[in-house]
Q: What sequence folds into this?
């Protein structure tokens, strides 16, 4: 009986500490304010990555990074990310995005891991900058760990780039940490 009480108290203490740490960490993060509305039919299509915060899952990418989005019948979005790897070959990642906030369509989650048709490990994909004509998008997550600058073309004008930098700063990102994406002409398929 004493062992049971000790175990119960230990678990209660563990969960209390876990909740406290979660509240403290969440309290340190400023909320990431997204755009007020995204027309997903205008958002789908091909985007070129202009820049990103460095991340482990794109370490193999040396350039020509694109994202293709396509609406699925169930309302989700098919995601196909491509890049040129260090051997000059195309590296592809297939995933799915789902809408988290249907009032704005600006908060989505993306998964690139599927096991027996079940998508696992969902990551935030929040649109917090968007051109009036959907010519560029600024995407990130509340933790500010990841960010991507996307464009319908492989280059942005200096004026648009300057505006995007201000959007990033206003959202709590440091634009100086971005890795600019190179776009080359020739690609080889694997």
A:
């Amino acid at each position: 009986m004493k062992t049971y009480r000790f175990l119960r108290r230990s678990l209660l203490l563990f969960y209390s500490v876990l909740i406290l740490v979660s509240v403290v960490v969440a309290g340190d993060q400023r909320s990431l304010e997204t755009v007020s509305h995204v027309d997903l039919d205008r958002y789908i299509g091909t985007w070129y990555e202009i820049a990103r915060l460095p991340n482990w899952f794109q370490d193999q990418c040396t350039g020509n990074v694109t994202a293709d989005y396509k609406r699925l019948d169930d309302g989700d979005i098919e995601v196909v990310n491509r890049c040129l790897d260090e051997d000059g070959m195309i590296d592809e990642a297939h995933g799915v995005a789902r809408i988290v906030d249907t009032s704005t369509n600006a908060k989505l989650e993306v998964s690139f891991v599927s096991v027996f048709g079940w998508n696992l490990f969902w990551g935030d994909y929040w649109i917090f900058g968007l051109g009036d004509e959907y010519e560029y998008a600024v995407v990130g997550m509340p933790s500010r760990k990841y960010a991507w600058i996307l464009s319908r073309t492989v280059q942005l004008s200096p004026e648009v780039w300057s505006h995007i930098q201000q959007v990033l700063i206003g959202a709590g990102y440091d634009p100086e940490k971005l890795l600019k994406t190179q776009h080359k002409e020739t690609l080889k398929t694997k």
About this structure: The longest strand covers residues 61-71. Residues 1-28 have pLDDT under 50 and may be disordered. The radius of gyration is 20 Å.
